[in-house]
Amino acid sequence: MSEHAEVVKPPVTSIGVVGWLRQNLFNTPLNSLLTLATLYFLWTVLPPFVRWAFLDASWFTPSQVCRDGAGACWSVITQNIRFILFGFYPYDQQWRPMTAVVLLLGLLFYSRDRKNWSKWLGYAWVVGLASMGVLMAGGVPGLPAVESTKWGGLPLTLLLSVFGLTAAYPLGVILALGRQSKMPAVKVLCVVYIEMIRGVPLISLLFMGSIIFPLFLPEGITINKILRAQVAIILFTAAYIAEVVRGGLQAIPRGQYEAAESLGLNYYLTMRLVILPQALKIVIPPTVSILISAFKDTSLVVIIALYDVLKTSQTVLSNPEWMGFSREVYIFLAILYFLGCFSMSHYSRKLEMELSTDNH
Amino acid sequence: MALNTSRTDAAALHEKPEPFWLDPKKRAVLFQILVLGVVGLIAWYLISNTVANLQRQKIATGFDFLGKEAAFEIGESLIAYDASNTYARALVVGALNTVKVSFIGIVITVILGTFIGIARLSSNWLISRLAAAYIEFMQDIPVLIQLFFWYAIFYETLPSPRQALNPMHGVFLCNRGLIMPVPEFHPAYRYVFLAFVAACFLVWGLRRWARKRQDETGKTFPVFRVSLGLLVGLPLAVWMALGSPFSLNVPELRGFNFRGGTTLSPEFMALLLGLILYTAAFVAEVVRAGIQSVSKGQREAAMSLGLRPAQVLRLVILPQALRVIIPPLTSQMLNLTKNSSLAVAIGYPDFVSVANTTINQTGQSIEGVALIMVVYLFFSLSTSAFMNWYNKKVKLVER
Asked: Which residue ranges does UniProt annotate as crossing the membrane (chain A) (predicted)?
């Protein structure tokens, strides 16, 4: 009874590579045309770029070799990497900002997994941030003090972002709650604050921090430049976070408030136990995009002459020896920021999926 | 009598008078007074410090400086300006430059962003992947770094005028910027413009008439095609009737620089390019989300009603997609305008840059920063006024 049913294979043109190509690249005449045009465009752009960026590039050479070569000069990065990353921080002490950055990245990496979220992680963050501060500033036995005017490069960028975001988040939540409040005075104050900050560019706040803020303080008291920029960034980011959180608060159905009230919870407990946990969860994706733009916005401090990683790179470029290699330096910085932002947005998508599963 | 007893009953219920901190209303009033008091105190403290500091450093206050001679040159200006003009005029020049770069930037960004957003949804794998990569990359790189990058391309990579790149006849690209031909002005253009304005009015009237007729008789009228014909045809007819005058002012290399045509400075080009390429990525995401928000059933239902594809798009898909697209799109336009303030970093004389120079010269930082904030607040508030108007309008369209 071995009757062989003839196995009819699908036509070659609809499976495998050929089928995929037909379905995704050449399914209509217009698409075929577009595909060919795109391929031609890539063919004219990519090979010269690859030749410039990799094949002809110089990686660890003095600047003269770069000037004679035809390709990209990545040496401008590799030869000056310590200045780009750490700025004017004393050369023999640069292991300290290095350790601080590694500590921060390690903490971020460990906090990535939700299984590790606990009270201890919170304490670890407090201890971690404090020891980062001590490492940077010094002034304890064994670590000579380093003035904050000498801080620069990557640690400064990360410092401004991390402290800015951690301080702006609670402030933003408070502002959002104030805006939803039934008390007219509180509500008006919060609305005016949020709308005013959101209506002006960050640069005007940074100007305010760097030029006007010293006038606000009584004679003889000065606050250092980094802190002033930090305050401006916090005030700016908080307004945006407030608007995002407001969106979350508005999405919570009335029944949740009424249920909490009928349980006898007061305002504080209602918010802490019922409303905020739900509202903040809804707004994770938009919050992350605020965090990403806040991270990108720290690059603006270059305009008020703080030595963040962008400014240190530009300082390298103003050195006659390395003048004229701006493209390479900016591409390097773009990759640096891209890695930071991309990992954040990637993480937010992952977190969003994890959190949404328990709703099914 | 009865009234009295009920009152005493009520009083008897509260044997002790309720303390005021247990009454939510009184507590709210108290809390607000407290908040206002604290805010007021902080404000008073800051203001009194500022006044004392200003007096001690002998810095003038008030806006008198606006009438004084500015004594600095501005690289590019839409209105006549030189160093002997007042600060007020310099600031107007800056504001106009901001409006110029923002307006051109917004127009190109919306067009480019729409294309990329549609490309992202293309069934062509290659194009959709490329669009996705563009969106992800551009969104994740700070706009300031992009500005610096394009500026470096202009002043560092592009050749001097003598070796300028010449991609098209009369168009030159070099480290002095982009030089291109412009049509020369002719008195006839005034009438062509008037004809265009007249055509706009005609189209408006035609639309009203066509809608009214359709409501009454059910007959449709090819409004779109006739309008397009009017808008293009009427000015064209006037232009041809006046002898179709047209001449281009083509730039030429003379010595070390170009004569004729119009020059877009490297600062302007870098700013425009950076803002457009950055914001277009966000606009593309907005457009993509808007198109995806209209469910497939809507298109199928519209087609089953017998509407033609163009009508399906115009009457069913677009009104619904635009309701989702317009609000975030406006905020992207506003973002572009606010980001144009980064011009100060590459030396394009926008409002912030001129105000910054003013602050440095006069020392009146409070007034300068206040001016910056007021100008941008004006842009933002007028945009949100438009948004509220628009939201009301689309709400009426809803059932």
From this structure: 30-50, 95-111, 123-144, 156-178, 199-217, 229-245, 329-347
In B348-377, the residues whose Cβ lies within 8 Å of chain A are: 352, 356, 359, 365-366, 368-369, 372-373, 376-377
| Number of compact structural domains in chain B | 3
Residue B234's domain comprises 185-246
CB of B38 within 8 Å of a chain A CB? The answer is no
C-alpha to C-alpha distance for A61 and A48, rounded to whole angstroms: 22
- Count other Cβ atoms within 10 Å, centred on residue B257: 14
ipTM: 0.88
Q: How far apart are CA B189 and CA B195, in angstroms?
A: 10
Any domain includes B78: no
Whether residue A310 contacts residue A299, with contact meaning beta carbons closer than 8 Å, is answered with yes
User: Residue A232: which CATH number?
Assistant: 1.10.3720.10
Q: Are residues B151 and B112 both part of a single domain?
A: yes
Q: Give yes or no for B338 touching A (CB within 8 A).
A: yes
Q: Is A247 exposed, middle or buried (0-12, 13-18, 19+ CB in 10 A)?
A: middle
Note whether residue B285 is domain-resident: yes
Identify any residues that bridge with B86 across adjacent strands, giving them in sequence order: B69
Of the partner residues A24, A201, A333, the one whose CB lies closest to the CB of residue B341: A201
Q: Give me the residue from A214, A310, A341 closest to B140, CB to CB.
A: A341
CA-to-CA dists, residue B104 to B152, B180, B260, angstroms: 22, 16, 22
Residues in chain B with CB shorter than 8 Å from the CB of A34 are: 122, 124, 126-127
DSSP string, A305-319: T--BHHHHHHHHHTS
Q: Are strands B248-249 and B182-183 parallel, antiparallel or unpaired?
A: antiparallel
Number of domains in chain A: 1
CB-based contact A200 B153, cutoff 8 Å: no
In a domain, B1, yes or no: no
Contact A299, B144 (CB under 8 A): yes
10-residue mean pLDDT profile of chain A (360 residues): values are: 69 76 80 88 90 84 80 85 86 86 88 80 87 83 80 87 89 93 90 91 91 83 85 94 90 90 90 89 84 90 88 89 87 93 87 66
Q: How many contacts (CB atoms, under 8 Å) link A and B?
A: 156
The tokens of B115 are what? Answer: 């294309």
